Amino acid sequence: MATIGVKEVAALAGVSIGTVSNVLNRPDKVTEATAARVHAAIEQLGFIRNDAARQLRAGSSRAIGLVILDVANPFFTGLARGAQERAAESGLSVILGYSDEKVEREASYLDLFEEQRVHGVLLSPAAEPGPRLERLRAHGIPAVLVDRLSTDTSFSSVSVDDIRGGATAVGHLLAQGRRRIAFIGGPLTIRQVSDRLHGASEAASAEPRASLEVVTVSALTVAEGRRVGRQIARRDPAARPDAVFAANDLVALGVLEAMLIEGTVKIPEQMSLIGYDDIGFAGSAMVPVSSIRQPMALMGQTAVDVLMEEASGAGRAAQHVVFQPELVVRESSQR
Amino acid sequence: MATIGVKEVAALAGVSIGTVSNVLNRPDKVTEATAARVHAAIEQLGFIRNDAARQLRAGSSRAIGLVILDVANPFFTGLARGAQERAAESGLSVILGYSDEKVEREASYLDLFEEQRVHGVLLSPAAEPGPRLERLRAHGIPAVLVDRLSTDTSFSSVSVDDIRGGATAVGHLLAQGRRRIAFIGGPLTIRQVSDRLHGASEAASAEPRASLEVVTVSALTVAEGRRVGRQIARRDPAARPDAVFAANDLVALGVLEAMLIEGTVKIPEQMSLIGYDDIGFAGSAMVPVSSIRQPMALMGQTAVDVLMEEASGAGRAAQHVVFQPELVVRESSQR
DNA sequence: GTCGAAGATTGAATCGTTTTATTGCGACGG
DNA sequence: CCGTCGCAATAAAACGATTCAATCTTCGAC
User: Rounded to a whole number, what is the distance in angstroms from the first to the last CA of chain B?
Assistant: First the structure.
């Protein structure tokens, strides 16, 4: 297994190693004929450049690090996908890690990334930025926080406006003529949930005749949605809401199933329903469920853009990009 | 942004750079007192070793490459998770890429991995092994194929026995006393689907009184399952199967929904239903759906194990590990 | 025919760590 | 009391690509 390096290529092509490097990195600096010869040699020897040596010289690698909270969550995989693709356009690769919300796992990824001298770090943080992030910055590795606004605004961030999302959802329900609205979600300690509720109540209070009932669940799951949905379905018709805004699509799907099983409430005729996240299942439910879509891929792309900007040392000031979620209207909310 | 290297650490600790390296890599070779001094210096300076330089010297990196077909597929994310965790135990990190079934994307990842001089490659291949894999091997980088048995048995592989899975599913239905069984799945050009059907028909033919009807769908989606399910629900009761084996859980969920809406067939009383993959939704459906679970995480772990074995140069012969899928019985198939 | 400028090519220095041969040193046995 | 053995620590040589300053071509202009 003889190791093939620029040296061997140079020898075969009858040029110096410097020229080989030029062919690889500044093709314009080299004559077409020699370039061809060198390429032929590369091909013939099956030369693959050693990235370690390259980045040792360059000082930093052609990779960026990305830490997400959960691999199983479509939101984060969408984010990763967007980041991945944008990075590839700039010839960067993405090292993906997931922290499972664990601070120590996040920390070990950050250490790894620093050892690798990554170009920059995209982080969906499990906690407030700690000393590790500061050190990254001190070492010239920029970081961009995704999906979480930090109280520490000195790090750039890319996030989505959940308050606005909540307001949009309820606004849509109001526009359909609904007035007795129920918010189903919880636990309220999750910031995303409380933000969505916040937006919902804002929108509701803008319409004098509207009321907002808050029904909390212990987890954002189909089962919980179904449980609460059943309770609502069995209420006296006069006491039932005429619209439900669920804190995510799983809960919405549970509510929908409960209504279908109980059969007392027809969706969308008697009750409008809207969820949040626009997961694939929402659109393929028995009654396609309206939802609020977060531009996941776009967020990933933008995060990379911001990162590159910081890496180029351009703007010293941190940027905070906030995306507006998008209303996706389907059958469940239209009458 | 002064760059901190072993040199600076050595200077501060009053030792040579060689000693610093020893402290880091062979702590036993060094006196406790000096080790303490060096560690103090490292701490004080915030030294992080440069992995590029390290691996330049070492010849290969502390990472393995993993290419999966699809980020959104829980099977692959489970696989990635298992691989990730097993690799971390050995101090290796995983570079994750996804090919979207595109050969050229797969190829570009393999090139990247080779530039990075990864320890090894785990590949869920989009096509038959090509020259790139051969070259990897020629360069001393082992590769393990996951989830796809290759006709080229010279590469090690870790896969799951879909034929057996199909047989298990139908065997379970037969054990429940069902005889008129329908297989719903497609397109049959997908090997996984045809394997499952193959196993299903094997199991069915072992029971003389059993019949197996094959209903093909154009895609493994909820919508397709629902469409076909509706047709079946509307058949004359005598012409209806008494059990359905869906090629994956999405289709099974669609079938379930159709039965619930049409109301003509009760699951599980009048018809047993079983899916495949055991995605999270299967267990939380209105009627929890039985399924065939593939040991995703275990496959990932095992793939890494096999890889490490090959990397250590031990066994020259390729290994082929085949996992047996597991039957998960829930309400939808029990009467 | 010579000179100069522009462009192509070269070669040595460099990145930061690991490794190996070597030195220094104290202790122990003869 | 000297030689030797063992252990710590050191210094210098890798690893392989990139990058300049320096050298060499080529070619047009005078």
Answer: 70
Percentages helix, strand, coil for chain A (3-state, rounded to 5) are 50, 15, 35
Instruction: For residue B284, give the nearest of A139, A222, A284 by CB distance.
Output: A222
Q: Are residues A64 and A118 in the same domain?
A: yes
Q: According to the model, what pLDDT value does residue A20 have?
A: 94
- Give domain status of residue A313, yes or no: yes
> pLDDT value at position A315?
60
Percent of chain A with pLDDT over 90: 72
Judged against a pLDDT cut of 60, whether residue A221 lies above it is answered with yes
Q: In the prediction, which pLDDT does A39 show?
A: 94
Q: Quick check: is A115 in a domain?
A: yes
Residue A1 lies in a domain: no
Does B228 lie in the same domain as B178?
A: yes
pTM metric for this prediction: 0.86
Greater confidence (B183 vs A137) lies with: B183
CB contact under 8 A, B72 and A77: yes
The answer to whether the CB atoms of A139 and B281 lie below 8 A apart is no
Residue pairs between chains A and B whose CB atoms are closer than 8 Å: 102
Q: Do A225 and A270 reside in the same domain of the chain?
A: yes
Give strand letter and number of the nucleotide nearest A5 (CA to C1'): D16
| B56 close contact with A: CB closer than 8 A | yes
How many Å apart are CA B142 and CA A242, to the nearest integer? 61
A46 to chain B: which residues are within 8 Å by CB?
A: 135, 138-139
Alpha helices in chain A (DSSP H): 6-13, 17-25, 32-45, 51-58, 74-89, 103-115, 131-138, 162-175, 191-205, 222-233, 249-262, 280-283, 296-311
Average pLDDT over residues B147-157: 81
Is pLDDT at B80 greater than 70 in this prediction? yes
Question: Chain A residues with CB inside 8 Å of B221's CB?
Answer: 284
> In this structure, are B301 and B156 located in the same domain?
yes
Q: Which residue of A has its CA nearest to B60?
A: A52
pLDDT digits (tens, 9 = 90+) for B181-216: 999 998 999 889 999 999 999 999 999 999 999 999
Residue B120: give the domain boundaries: 59-160+296-323
Q: Is residue A115 within 8 angstroms of chain B, CB to CB?
A: yes
CA distance B4 to chain A (A): 9
In this complex, the answer to whether residue A21 has its CB under 7 A from any atom of chain D, a nucleic strand, is: yes
Residue B258 and residue B300 in one domain: no
Nearest to B192 by CA among B170, B215, B169, B162: B162
Q: Tell me which residue in A61, A284, A286 faces B221 most closely, judged by beta carbons.
A: A284
- Average pLDDT of the residues in B7-15: 92
Tens of pLDDT, residues A51-63: 999 999 988 889 9
Residue B168 is part of a domain; what is its CATH number? 3.40.50.2300
User: Are B257 and B199 contained in the same domain?
Assistant: yes
Average pLDDT over residues A102-124: 92
* A77 and A18 co-located in one domain: no
Mark whether B184 and B256 lie in a shared domain: yes
Mean pLDDT of A2-26: 92
Distance CA B72, CA A81 (A): 10
Number of domains in chain A: 3
Residue type, B332: S
The answer to whether B29 CB is within 7 Å of strand D is: yes
A93 has which bridge partners? Answer: A63
For residue B243, give how far its alpha carbon lies from the nearest alpha carbon of chain A (Å).
22
Report the CATH number at residue B42.
Answer: 1.10.260
In this complex, is the C-beta atom of A281 within 8 Å of any C-beta atom belonging to chain B? Answer: yes
Answer whether residue B54 is part of any domain: no
